[in-house]
Amino acid sequence: MKSIIIIPTYNEKENIERLIEEIRKLNKDFHVLIIDDNSPDNTGRIADGLAKKYPEVSVIHRPGKLGLGTAYITGFKYALENNYDLVFTMDADFSHQPKYLIDLLEEAKEYGLVIGSRYIKDGGIQNWPLHRLILSQGANIYVRMVTGLPIFDSTGGFNCYRRKVLEKIDLDKIISDGYAFQIEMKYRLWKKGFSLKEVPVTFIDRTHGTSKISKRIIFQAFFLVWKLRLSLIN
Ligand SMILES: Nc1nc2c(ncn2[C@@H]2O[C@H](COP(=O)(O)OP(=O)(O)O)[C@@H](O)[C@H]2O)c(=O)[nH]1
Ligand SMILES: [Mg+2]
Question: Is pTM beyond 0.90 here?
Answer without folding.
Answer: yes
